[in-house]
Amino acid sequence: MNKGEENVMWKGGQPIHRVGKKTYKLTIVGYDHHLCIINTYAYLHRVNAEIKLGRKLLPNEIVTFKDKDTMNCDLDNLIIVGSKHELYALHRKVDRGENHLRNPNEKNEMVKCACGCFTEFLKYDKQGRPRKYVSGHNMSNAKVIKIYD
C-alpha cells in the first residue's frame, strides 16, 4: 500500500471533506470537541472563526469566505453572519455589484417613473428587482421632458 505522496488519494497532507461540489479543509480537534463532525475532525474554517471571534459559534451563525475559496481558511478571509438571510444579502451585493435586489427587511418605497410621466409605483417588483419604469409602460405615450443648458 502506497503511503503519503505516493498514494493516489494524497491531497498535500491536509485532510479534506467534500460537500456537494465544495471542498473544505479539516483539522484534528478530538472526539469531545463541540465542532467535531467526522471521527476526530472538524471544519478548519469553523475552528478559525471561533478563534477570530474569541468565543464559540452560536447555532445560527454561518461562516463564509470573502474570496469564495473554501480552501482559504485565513482569519482575514472569513466572514461570520447571523442568519441565512444575511448570507444571501451579502452574496447578492458581492455577486451583482451595486444592482441591489431588495433585502429581506428593506422597505419597498414609492418612486416616480424615470421617463418623466410622473407616475408613482413601488421601487421593487415581486421578485425584489429594482424598477425604473412603470410595468407595461408604453414609451410612445410618455411625456418627453427636454432640459436645455
Please provide a written account of the structure.
The protein has 149 residues and is α+β, with helices and mostly antiparallel strands. It has 2 domains: 4-95, no CATH class; 107-149, no CATH class. It has 2 helices and 7 strands; from the N terminus they run βββαββαββ. The chain has helices at 44-53, 84-95; strands spanning 16-19, 22-28, 41-43, 62-65, 78-81, 110-112, 120-122. The strands form 3 sheets. The protein has a 3-stranded antiparallel β-sheet with strand order 1-2-3. The chain has a two-stranded antiparallel ribbon with strand order 4-5. The termini are far apart. The model has no long low-confidence stretch (mean pLDDT 77).
